[in-house]
TrEMBL record:
<protein>
    <recommendedName>
        <fullName>Pyrroloquinoline quinone-dependent pyranose dehydrogenase beta-propeller domain-containing protein</fullName>
    </recommendedName>
</protein>
<dbReference type="Pfam" id="PF22807">
    <property type="entry name" value="TrAA12"/>
</dbReference>
<dbReference type="InterPro" id="IPR011041">
    <property type="entry name" value="Quinoprot_gluc/sorb_DH_b-prop"/>
</dbReference>
<dbReference type="InterPro" id="IPR054539">
    <property type="entry name" value="Beta-prop_PDH"/>
</dbReference>
<feature type="domain" description="Pyrroloquinoline quinone-dependent pyranose dehydrogenase beta-propeller">
    <location>
        <begin position="36"/>
        <end position="421"/>
    </location>
</feature>
<feature type="signal peptide">
    <location>
        <begin position="1"/>
        <end position="23"/>
    </location>
</feature>
<dbReference type="InterPro" id="IPR011042">
    <property type="entry name" value="6-blade_b-propeller_TolB-like"/>
</dbReference>
<keyword id="KW-0732">Signal</keyword>
Length: 423
């Protein structure tokens, strides 16, 4: 029943996609796939041949900076309009050997931050020339042997001295993360001016913005209302009372963390339940009376807590998504009426799901849909043949808007960057 309900949801989502059409291409750029686009959207292929492009950022001069996981480098793509699409004028490596995923620019655009398994590094950066200064490690002590090597980064327009760094769990069920002292499965904020003067250990420094979050790979700030948001990859191989319920549970999660510059942010420091409490997606397969989409429950083989702890003393998400679809980034459009989410796609469910970019509509700084909604996602870009995934399809990872409202999307599996118009 859970599989059928999820498949029905996918069919409903994809039914509003327009037929496949050949995308207009830049000279010498030939994309491997032809995505299906949601109504009102079109796309072009910006670049191919990259080495596992992960997160992206657009600098103050309109250039695209790309974190390449495959080479642990940063590439700078100088862009140029060509008719009704944008193309790459030049492509150069500006940083090497310091990143596997995360990248961010300070609010003034003059400091570049990258992250890898062990640390965060800062560089002076000139958007006009592409000149990058000598790198300095500013946050250390994050290396662990385990499942989640990404260290998502974000900065804030509303709190410009703040750097936000996420660190995931050491494995699927990381029992030590029931304590903040583990320094894992959490989001922390750091004063940029302080860490530039004196580097800190992640576990010892900074302030906890949120914890009990299994693996945060994407974070962003609402550009109008200033709210801070994250998308989370939840637990695999879930069992409850000896039953295998992993195919459609737990839900992936969009969480709200308040305004970073608020004097009294009531969301700061909240615990979201992991590893003892997980959010439901397919409530029927869970089989707990009264459980709603997003409600937290305790599965098998996790650190013990009372059931009331999950329902009363842990924070749940603001919206929830299909199990195992792996949201890896989130970005708002300029007027904050929509948030776009990159779903990298599943490995832990059958049939596969995800591998798409979706939109969630917002009003007054919050999603328009209720927390229990299963229909909040609106199709933007999907694979035309999801059956070919994960090895022969595009897998969205990073998102970045430019000042013209164009949305850049990286695909690490295919080494490509797409541009979505109409976002």
């Amino acid at each position: 029943m859970g599989v059928l309900s999820t498949l029905a949801g996918v069919v409903a989502l994809t039914s509003v996609l327009v037929p496949e059409v050949a995308a207009q291409s830049c000279s010498g750029v030939n994309g491997r796939f032809q995505p299906r686009m949601g109504s009102g959207y079109r796309y072009s292929v910006l670049a191919t041949g990259l080495r596992q492009p992960r997160h992206l950022v657009v600098d103050s001069a309109g250039n695209l900076l790309v974190a390449e996981g495959g080479t642990q480098s940063v590439r700078r793509l100088v862009l140029q309009d060509q008719g009704n699409i944008v193309c790459v004028q030049s492509n150069t490596q500006v940083v090497s050997g310091t990143t596997n995923h995360g990248i961010a620019l300070s609010a003034d655009g003059q400091t570049l931050f990258t992250s890898n398994l062990a640390s965060v590094t800062a560089y002076s950066y000139n958007a006009n020339t592409g000149q990058v200064g000598q790198g300095r490690q500013i946050i250390t002590g994050m290396s662990i042997q385990g499942t989640h090597p990404t260290r998502a980064l974000a900065t804030s327009k509303f709190s410009p001295d703040t750097l936000i760094v996420a660190r995931g769990s050491a494995n699927n069920i990381d029992a030590a993360t029931t304590s903040q002292s583990s320094g894992r499965s959490m989001i922390k904020t750091f004063s940029i001016s302080r860490v530039l003067q004196s580097p800190v250990d992640y576990t010892q420094g900074g302030e906890v913005l949120a914890w009990g979050l299994r693996n945060i790979v994407g974070m962003t700030e609402d550009p109008v209302y200033g709210g801070f948001w994250s998308v989370e990859n939840q637990m695999d191989d879930l069992r409850l009372n000896g039953r295998d319920i992993h195919n459609d549970n737990p839900a992936e999660r969009l969480s709200y963390h308040g305004q970073l510059n608020a004097t009294n942010n009531r969301y700061k420091g909240l615990n979201y339940g992991y590893p003892s409490c997980v959010p439901a997606w397919d409530t029927a397969s869970v089989g707990i009376n009264g459980l709603l989409v997003g409600s937290l429950f305790k599965p098998d083989n996790v650190p013990n807590v009372a059931a009331s702890e999950c329902s009363n003393n842990r924070m749940t998400g603001r919206l929830h998504f299909h199990a195992h679809t792996a949201p890896l980034d989130i970005k708002f459009n300029k007027n904050a009426t929509s948030a776009y989410i990159a779903f990298h796609g599943s490995w832990n469910r059958n049939p596969a799901d995800g591998y798409r970019v979706m939109r969630v509509d917002f009003a007054n700084g919050q999603p328009v849909h209720d927390v229990t909604s299963k229909t909040a996602q609106i199709p933007v870009m999907e694979n035309s043949n999801i059956g070919a995934c994960p090895f022969n399809c595009f897998r969205p990872v990073g998102l970045a808007f430019d000042d013209k409202g164009r949305l850049y999307v990286s695909s690490d599996q295919s080494g490509e960057i797409y541009v979505i118009y109409g976002a």
